[in-house]
Amino acid sequence: MFEVIGKIVVILVVIFSGIAAIASIGLLMAWPIKWTWNFTMPYIFGLPAITWGKAWCLHFLSKCLIKSYNSVTAKK
């Protein structure tokens, strides 16, 4: 009985650790978007500065809309 509960706990820890790692990488990748947006867009186009969360959403949206193309895998 306790072996099954132990396995379930290990699986849940691995899943939540993976989700936390993906979220951390996403937040790390949102920093350059936030910095470049806030550095250029308000001065060039008069747009407002964005927060870290909005930069994270822009990063996610760009990854969904713009898929990378690898010519090596396309030839197979």
Order of helices and strands: HHH
Q: What is the typical, i.e. mean, pLDDT? A: 86
| Unreliable residue runs | none
What integer value in Å does the Rg equal?
A: 19 Å
- The shape is elongated
Which band does the percent of strand residues land in?
Answer: under 5%
Summed up, the domain count is 1
What is the tally of beta strands?
0
User: What class, by secondary structure content?
Assistant: mainly alpha
Structure description:
This protein is an all-alpha fold and 76 residues long. The protein has one domain (2-67). 80% of the residues lie in helices and 0% in strands. The protein has three helices and no strands. The termini are far apart. 4% of the residues are buried.
Summarize the structure.
This protein has one domain (2-67).
